[in-house]
Amino acid sequence: MALNIKKLLVSQPKPTSEKSPYFDIAEKFGVEIDFRPFIKVEPLSGKEFRQQRISILDHSAIIFTARTAIDHFFHLCEELRVTIPETMKYFCMTEAIAVYLQKYTVYRKRKIFFAQNGKLDELVTIIGKHAKENYLVPVSDVHKDDLFVLLDAKKIVYTKAIMFRTVSNDFSKDEKFDYDMLLFFSPSGITSLLKNFPDFKQENIKIGCFGPTTAKAVKDAGLRLDVEAPTLEAPSMTAALELYLKKELANGKKNGK
Predict the structure, then answer these.
(1) Looking at domain 42-166, which of 2.120.10.30, 3.40.50.10090, 3.40.50.720, 3.40.50.1980 is its CATH number?
(2) What whole-number distance in Å separates Cα of residue 73 and Cα of residue 162?
(3) pTM higher than 0.85, yes or no?
(4) Residues 206-220: pLDDT tens digits?
(5) Is 230 exposed, middle or buried (0-12, 13-18, 19+ CB in 10 A)?
(6) Could you tell me which residues come within 8 angstroms of residue 105 by beta carbon, excluding any fewer than 6 positions away?
């Protein structure tokens, strides 16, 4: 009983671990899975950053919500020849992000704070206990405002600093695009799809996505959404994909395909 879906494109980098559920799914259902990010992140140059008229050293604390932000912040400091004082405090979304700081600075627990549960509200509660600090928040040009809404509510003084941008990862003209299913993880991925393939027609191609903002972007683009995560049944994209392929297989058997 063959599946109609034989080749999938996951718009993310290829997993570094061989234990990824995607590899299990490929083996279990006999499907081919390619990994190709539709978007990539690139740094702002020192010249571009200066146009925002932000002085990094005017701030006494930095909020990091992702490891990407840490990389771009320190690379930009290096380019601008800004030396971060040892008194600088760091507030991180998760412990993993906090530990990543060791790549660039000496890890001192008294200067590094993080949300134990990895949630935004807990991080902002911790920040609220250090309300006298002047915070710098490195972000991408495309970012959510959830953090800033919470900071405003607590009357925290902060500066939003754009340090990197999200851009479309272009496909070459001779690249094959013969997929039965596409999986997306951000609205930028949908924008990139339509930029790379302005004449894209969905027809029988299935589209899956992770997160409500990506789902909205799929529908706003006039495309059909076939697989959605997270749900109660499927908390992850791989769980949703496996569930969908199981149903497709069952339907194929029922119809005698």
Answers:
(1) 3.40.50.10090
(2) 10
(3) no
(4) 999 999 989 999 999
(5) middle
(6) 84, 90
